[in-house]
TrEMBL record:
Reaction(s) this enzyme catalyzes, per UniProt: ATP + protein L-histidine = ADP + protein N-phospho-L-histidine
Ranges where the Signal transduction histidine kinase subgroup 3 dimerisation and phosphoacceptor domain occurs: 183-247
Alphabetical keyword list: ATP-binding, Kinase, Membrane, Nucleotide-binding, Phosphoprotein, Transferase, Transmembrane, Transmembrane helix, Two-component regulatory system
Protein name: histidine kinase
Gene3D superfamilies to which the protein is assigned, alphabetical: 1.20.5.1930, Histidine kinase-like ATPase, C-terminal domain
GO molecular function, one term: kinase activity
Organism: Amycolatopsis speibonae
Record's keyword annotation contains Isomerase: no
EC number(s) given by UniProt: 2.7.13.3
């Protein structure tokens, strides 16, 4: 499967932005120190505005989800600064290069990340604010008009760069989606042509053995093998159908979750199952139901392999956070005192983590209490949010 994780921020670009913005502010400060006489209040105000906008421009990388708020705040602050400069006596020496660059960076980020309508509104407001700022602050002169043209060109470059980055991400996402589709169809063909073919052969041979040994003591065992093979073949066919038509897997169904949990637990009398009231009527996506089955089944198998002396195994399934998440907890008391237990080897937990991560869920596994070991999965329900975007919640019950 192709990786879909968000790439880490490019630290070189962050350092470059910081150096450029800091350099412009230092240049303005040095120029003010060289000049004789006290600094006008308006010039100090413009300098503080440039520092603030520079901080907002850098924060957009730390908080990409708040790009709209940061850009709106930057435009509002710059516009307020221009209004103050227009109402009072203009500053003699034009300044504000750091402010203009920071505002251009924020506008470019808005064009890159925000929805089209929101990005268009902020781009237009940012352009008007940048083009009008020199004239409103420093008066209607040839120099200020030249600065306004330069700032307008800077705004245009920022919009172009933002749109180029936006188009590049759209093309990348389309290429990833196409690659996933090709991989999914290839897997469907392999499952249909190879796995389903071999399982069909096993079922047919088992049926033949049942006919030959119709009166033998192995008849019950043969029937069980035939039934298991038929179920496996049906599961493979359903999986092939879902791979070829993924829209079928996104339909929300009601029911089936309780039956799935009970099937995963089986007839094991050593497992205590605690299901929340109304769980059978909970709307759950099919892939969530299958993931819950995998978590419970794999956790029970890990108990058998790694904690055979466990006296108590509990399975708790309940919706939490106003039914935004489904919480699946499987715990046991098979950890010996003074013994440090590591996560089971192999691919059990890795497979669970991959399935849960694909659903925007969260998986934690580790020691719990004095002798306990717990596997805790939190899966988003229809209408909920991804666990990655949600705040951390306490893991203790």
């Amino acid at each position: 499967m192709l990786p879909t994780a968000t790439p880490p921020p490019v630290r070189g670009l962050v350092i470059a932005e910081f150096m450029v913005l800091a350099g412009l502010n230092v240049e303005q400060l040095v120029r003010r120190l060289i000049m004789q006489g006290p600094a006008p209040a308006g010039e100090i105000f413009y300098f503080a505005t440039g520092l603030t906008l520079g901080a907002l421009a850098l924060l957009r990388r730390r908080f990409p989800a708040r790009t709209a708020a940061l850009t709106t705040s930057g435009i509002a602050l710059s516009l307020a600064c221009s209004v103050v400069g227009f109402l009072f006596e203009p500053v003699a020496a034009p300044s504000g290069d750091a402010e203009a660059l920071a505002l251009a960076v924020l506008v470019g980020a808005a064009c890159h990340r925000l929805p089209r309508g929101h990005a268009a509104v902020l781009a237009v407001l940012g352009g008007l604010t940048m083009a009008a700022a020199p004239v409103l602050r420093f008066g209607d002169t040839f120099t200020t008009l030249s600065i306004a043209v330069v700032w307008a060109l800077l705004w245009g470059c920022s919009v172009i760069v933002g749109l180029i980055l936006r188009d590049g991400e759209a093309r990348r996402d389309a290429a990833l989606a196409a690659a996933r589709d090709r991989e999914r169809l290839a897997l469907a063909r392999e499952l249909h042509d190879l796995v389903a073919h071999h399982i069909t052969g096993v079922v047919v041979r088992t049926q033949a053995a049942g006919v030959i040994l119709a009166d033998g003591p192995e008849q019950d065992l043969i029937k069980e093998i035939e039934h298991a093979g038929a179920e496996a073949l049906g599961a493979v066919r359903r999986l092939v159908m879902m791979l070829r038509s993924p829209e079928l897997a996104s339909q929300v169904t009601v029911g089936g979750l309780v039956e799935t949990i009970e099937a995963a637990v089986g007839d094991d009398e050593g497992v205590t199952v605690r299901l929340a009231d109304g769980l059978a009527d909970l709307a759950v996506a099919p892939e969530t139901v299958s993931t819950v089955h995998r978590v419970v089944l794999e956790s029970r198998n890990n108990v058998r392999r790694h904690a055979p002396d466990a006296r108590r195994v509990t399975v708790v399934v309940e919706p939490v956070d106003s039914r935004r998440y489904l919480r699946v907890e499987v715990g046991n008391d098979g950890l010996r005192p003074g013994r440090v237990r590591r996560a089971p080897g192999g691919y059990g937990l890795i497979g669970m983590a991959e399935r849960i991560s694909a659903l925007d869920g969260r998986l934690t596994a580790g020691e719990h209490g004095e002798r306990g070991w717990r596997v805790l999965a939190e899966l988003p329900l229809p209408g909920g949010v991804s666990a990655a975007d949600a705040p951390e919640r306490g893991s203790a019950r």
